Amino acid sequence: GAVVSQHPSWVICKSGTSVKIECRSLDFQATTMFWYRQFPKQSLMLMATSNEGSKATYEQGVEKDKFLINHASLTLSTLTVTSAHPEDSSFYICSALVAAGRYNEQFFGPGTRLTVL
Amino acid sequence: AQSVSQHNHHVILSEAASLELGCNYSYGGTVNLFWYVQYPGQHLQLLLKYFSGDPLVKGIKGFEAEFIKSKFSFNLRKPSVQWSDTAEYFCAVTSRGYQKVTFGTGTKLQVIP
Fold first, then answer.
1. Cβ pair A19, A67 in contact under 8 A
2. Any residues with CB less than 8 A from the CB of B26 and at least 6 apart, and which?
3. What is the spatial distance between Cα A37 and Cα B27, in angstroms, rounded to a whole number?
4. CB-based contact A93 B44, cutoff 8 Å
5. Is there a contact between B100 and A49 if contact means CB atoms under 8 Å apart?
6. What pLDDT is recorded for position A1?
7. How near does any CA of chain B get to the CA of A51, in Å?
8. Scanning A2, A83, B41, B96, which has the fewest C-beta atoms within 10 Å of its C-beta?
């Protein structure tokens, strides 16, 4: 199956700093990637849809100025958490879409655990 | 809009017991259905998926799921669970023309040795 990687796998930062998380599709090209966050013992919550070469589409309630998404190539999307605060601590997961006709499936990265002190 | 509900939030079973986790979705069109597993401290892994054809889908690690269109259900089953199946299980759906994945709230399975 298609492989998606994320880097870093975990990061600890001080409050007020910015953190960049990378999501790469390793063996396929993905025009569409998604970013999720998962709080402890909860399901995945979609944050935004990242489209190569265009602006990301954010879900309701997600601050686009705080969570900057860049999808500059067909294999890389980045999520930057700007001016991070402790409440931004979470597990961030990306996925890459493979779609053809009625078939569409997302392949998930291993996630990045962010801890903001 | 599509939605997914998992009615079992926390299931506790003894080893060798049979498992069935419920999943119902709401969407009137053609759907793609998935079950994912998340072991403690690990990332999401695909257990099985249904796109079309045989409604009984077999996945990895002895899991299977049955798509019953009339009931809008896609229940996950395993005839005999093991302690290593302790994990959280998520049902998910996408649909033709709607690429976002909608996840259920998850079911935490605890298998007691």
1. no
2. B2, B3, B4, B5, B72
3. 24
4. yes
5. yes
6. 67
7. 12
8. B41
